[in-house]
Design brief:
There is one protein chain. By secondary structure, the chain is of the alpha/beta class. The protein is 32% helix and 34% strand. It folds into two domains: 30 residues; 171 residues, Rossmann fold. It has three helices and nine strands. Strands 1, 2, 3, 4, 5, 6, 7, 8 and 9 form a nine-stranded mixed beta sheet that branches. A hairpin with a 4-residue loop joins strand 8 and strand 9. Helix 2 crosses helix 3.
């Protein structure tokens, strides 16, 4: 049993610890602003193709496989915007954008996350290596950097029909959350707009 003189100190410490825990719990329950990304404008669908395309979520590191919005103050450091997140994990968010955009081209009989039958005709596989805002050093310019490696694979024989790396940088005027999200949106639109004709041609 602790000496009688330590009891008040222990009680104070326990009380302070309890208050800190309650405070942390309160801040953890504060709602985050949720942001989404839009697909680029698609021209009127052409005659629908015959092939079925399955779009897989791209592989990504643990730092990117989250709904948090990543910022890099240095090449080796990853942080996240406070009080903000994407509407889904980043790889799933990109998968959704690609499914919607590729379906709107009308170049495939169907585009989805899973094949309608036993297997699709083609699978679009990817690896996401960059999806963050960057500003290296005090006063350095801020930009959004996206880099996605894609492979179009024919399902019947697992042959790689086409592969390409898509990389986009979009400048941001400041590091405010709304400005960065707008830069992410613009960068994503540009990248998806580059992916569409490549995937359509490779899968036709």
């Amino acid at each position: 049993m602790p000496p009688r003189s330590l009891l008040p100190a222990l009680a104070l410490a326990l009380g302070t610890s309890g208050c800190a825990a309650i405070s942390a719990l309160g801040s953890a329950s504060e709602p985050l602003d949720i942001y989404d990304l839009q697909t680029p404008a698609i021209e009127a669908p052409a005659r629908r193709g015959w092939a079925e395309l399955v779009v897989e979520p791209p592989i990504a590191s643990g730092a990117l496989s989250t709904e948090r919005i990543m910022i890099r103050p240095s090449p080796l450091q990853a942080q996240y915007l406070p009080g903000a997140r994407w509407s889904d994990d980043t790889p799933v968010l990109l998968q959704t954008l690609l499914v919607r955009s590729l379906a709107e081209t009308g170049a495939f009989a169907s585009v989805g996350r899973a094949p309608l039958g036993a297997q699709g005709d083609y699978a679009l596989l990817g690896e996401l290596t960059d999806f963050q805002a960057e500003s290296y050093g005090t006063g350095a310019p801020v930009s959004v950097h996206l880099r996605l490696m894609l492979r179009l694979v024919r399902e019947r024989d697992a042959a790689v029909v086409a592969s390409r790396t898509f990389e986009v940088r979009e400048p941001a005027t400041d590091d405010e959350t709304a400005t960065l999200v707008a830069a992410f949106d613009q960068a994503t639109r540009r990248m998806v707009a580059e992916i569409l004709p490549w995937a359509v041609q490779a899968g036709s």
